[in-house]
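Subject: sequence -> structure tokens, single chain

Hey, anyone have a minute? Need the predicted structure for the following. Not urgent.
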Amino acid sequence: MLSKKQAGGAAELTVRQNHIDLKAPAQSQLAMAEDLRIKVKPADKGRYFVDYTSTLQTDIAGGILLDDYRYGGGIGFRATEVWGDANSTILTSEGKDRATADGSNARWILVTGQSDHSSGKSGILFMSHNTNQAHPEPLRVWPPGQYEGKGNVFIEFCPIRHTSWEIQPGKRYSLTYRILVFDGELTVQEADNYWKSFVK
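Reply:
Had a minute. Here:
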């Protein structure tokens, strides 16, 4: 752990994950260092934010090439096993749903589903910052019927979905996301406003 703090109703921590190349010619070596910063803070209407920033860097002389692939990010989310095609929905900033969102680009993606809240519904809004690689970011979304029954809700912001990404030595690259967790309903206008406030 690099740091942790708590103040003003918010809590934050930063940790480092070292990605080791176990097949390096001489011996295993550090391929890439990733610092992950997570901050949780209250939002309006009893909702709360999770700010999520991943910062990558490498000292390998030739850099690292992250090949284009349908998974790899970014940030991904697999929902509770209770959620399935019949009791959850997916909507993107571009108006795509579960059937049409995979491979498309978006500023935000909204996932809602059945819950034990008095409204019967809860959800999560994932927002991509406009400084992120390949923004608006490509998405990986499991389409309807991906797996039979429930537990088949998966979304991901995937900056390497369509294009490779070169991590050059001596440079720092950050991917920044904000997550809004809420109960009840969240309108498209609210989602847009939250995203605009995030990138402002």
